[in-house]
Amino acid sequence: MQKIVINGGRPLKGEVAVSGAKNSVVALIPAIILADEPVTLDGVPAISDVDSLIDIIETMGASVDRQGETLVIDPRGIRDIPMPYGKINSLRASYYFYGSLLGRYGQAVVGLPGGCDLGPRPIDLHLKAFEAMGAIISYEGEYMRLSARENGLNGANIYMDTVSVGATINTMLAAVKAKGRTVIENAAREPEIIDVATLLNNMGAHIRGAGTDEIIIEGVEQLHGTRHQVIPDRIEAGTYIALAAAVGEGIRVTNVLYEHLEAFIGKLSEMGVRMTVEEDAIVVDKQENLKAIHVKTSPYPGFATDLQQPLTPLLLRAQGRGSIVDTIYEKRVNHVPELARMGADITTVGTKITYSGPNKLTGAPVKATDLRAGAALVIAGLMAEGTTEITNIEFILRGYSNIIEKLTQLGADIRLVD
Ligand code: UD1
């Protein structure tokens, strides 16, 4: 069992580069199954979710060549192999194989998705969309069987009852090779959806409107190879910006698209965080006199639920009382008791987090309960006086590329211990 040990209280300085987006790449890899030729991805982050996806597609028969951040996937050897168990159950994004296998083979036998426990995470909207396109779905205990009728999937008009990133992307994956036109209404608008649509269009798909709440897909018969640069990870960027504001003495975060972070940057400005926005970087100065604020998460372009936990330690430095309400995952509060263990004045009342500051944190043994809670604990550990030991760090390594190396380069005393 590995853990992260941090000796906190050291000021950090320098430059840190953001990697490719986790939530894009976990959809881009399953999307490549739909191609009839090799596809190259550049900017692939070194995270364990990518390792798991590579493992899964290699098991299916794809050949994969990974050199640094470049991944070449040749899907031609893929066979329609049932994938009910194993790695498939370890990550949430394995649900993208439902859409891509269904789109490619007209059938799929795939295990249920895993991932972080953020309370109930249904996939009813994904299944409703596949059914609207003519798929027959049966739930067989630990896995799902999906099959198109004899004449394959047909385009359909689909209204999403809730704005869902996963259901929007999965519907696109199933629809790109379906017969006729699919229209997704109330689609999610996250940048990762545009990234997946860009890859698919460069493979020969006809998708319009990605990034708006109406996406129109005209089915095509074949998809070919292409080369694609994964967009920067806006959540990793936000995490480093929050960290820079919490413990930095001048940190430049590079490979950032400001347009993807407007809500987050807006809230930091409200706290009084001083930053300079450059073309593809954000420079965060040393901060004093921060003000407590209220944060409410909502679908893009609102404040991202994935950034609520990484922001929390910075909020604890601010003067006054504030709150966080997560409207996407009400139970995304597992970082709160761990931060309280480090001395923070923070509690959960119902589904609302309230805090009061400024706080002085003290190092303590804490547990990462999910990916973004883990990021919050890393930042808190860097802020705290003394030593913080974080266990369950496999969650953190699922989503933060080279985090130990990146923080060490900024001057942090952080190490991975077996
Ligand atoms: C994606 C992200 C995750 C992020 C989340 C919200 C990936 C791999 N993960 O997760 O990091 O926190 O978006 O921005 O991209 N819902 C339903 N039925 C469904 C699907 C979703 O009710 O069939 C609900 C969910 O419970 C949640 C809301 O819709 O309350 C949004 O979820 P969704 O956008 O689908 O999240 P994911 O795509 O799973």
Automatic annotation (TrEMBL):
* Metabolic or biological pathway, per its Swiss-Prot or TrEMBL entry: Cell wall biogenesis; peptidoglycan biosynthesis
Where 2-(S-cysteinyl)pyruvic acid O-phosphothioketal occurs along the chain?
116
Query: Pfam families annotated for this entry?
Result: EPSP_synthase (PF00275)
Catalytic activity of the protein? phosphoenolpyruvate + UDP-N-acetyl-alpha-D-glucosamine = UDP-N-acetyl-3-O-(1-carboxyvinyl)-alpha-D-glucosamine + phosphate
Q: Which residues form the active site?
A: 116
Where is the Enolpyruvate transferase domain positioned along the sequence? 7-407
| One term of GO molecular function | UDP-N-acetylglucosamine 1-carboxyvinyltransferase activity
Q: Which UniProt keywords apply?
A: Cell cycle, Cell division, Cell shape, Cell wall biogenesis/degradation, Cytoplasm, Peptidoglycan synthesis, Pyruvate, Transferase
Family matches, as CDD domains: UdpNAET
- Binding of phosphoenolpyruvate occurs at 22-23
Which residues are recorded as binding UDP-N-acetyl-alpha-D-glucosamine? 92, 121-125, 306, 328
Instruction: Spell out the subcellular localization from the entry.
Output: Cytoplasm
> Could you say which EC number(s) this protein's record lists?
2.5.1.7
- The enzyme's main class, written as a single word, is transferase
Enumerate the HAMAP family for this protein. Answer: MurA
Question: Which family is this protein grouped under?
Answer: Belongs to the EPSP synthase family. MurA subfamily.
- The protein's role, per its UniProt record: Cell wall formation. Adds enolpyruvyl to UDP-N-acetylglucosamine.
Concerning PANTHER family, the annotation shows:
UDP-N-ACETYLGLUCOSAMINE 1-CARBOXYVINYLTRANSFERASE, UDP-N-ACETYLGLUCOSAMINE 1-CARBOXYVINYLTRANSFERASE 2
* NCBIfam families membership: murA, PRK09369.1, PRK12830.1
What is the name of this protein?
UDP-N-acetylglucosamine 1-carboxyvinyltransferase
Q: Which organism is it from?
A: Streptococcus caprae
